Amino acid sequence: MALLIHCQKDELYDEHRVEIQSRLLSATSHSSPLENIVQLISAVVIIFEHSFYIFDKRRYLQDKESNPSFRVALEQYIASPHAATVREAVSAAVQACEEAVATAAHAYEEAVSTAVYPYQGKLPSWIRKLPFESFKRKAKEAKESFECSRAREKDSLCSQAHEELIEAVLEIALNHRLPRP
Question: What residue numbers bound the domain in which 40 lies?
Fold first, then answer.
């Protein structure tokens, strides 16, 4: 995804994207891929919002500053106390999300593995010889229905955890905006 900001030599090229990503993620070592992505997104939202304010101020004042506004905003963000606060808050939000997803997955696995289904287990040989196909089919259908309902419940819990993560990140980004220049 190449982002371009077309404004008086204030363009964001791939090498700028790489620089921003490496500088923002350098502080978050040993993080999960999800945490790295969320850290980067939340910081970029704050930085780009601030860069638009810087650009607008420069345009209004007809300032011919050579340093791109996103680079100025990046430097201000990294130097601000907001960067560490955002990193910690996002890390806690991602950890809560990952724990909720892991709990949902564990509950699903536990429910499916410990469930007792009708006609489960080995039947005596004399019963196996009888024509009980309808019982076997019903048992299989009951098992599939149970597993499907548990899978839907797990998916619902995971979706809820991801929604809560998105809301938390949005709140973090809004509460830790850089002051307008």
Answer: 30-119+130-175
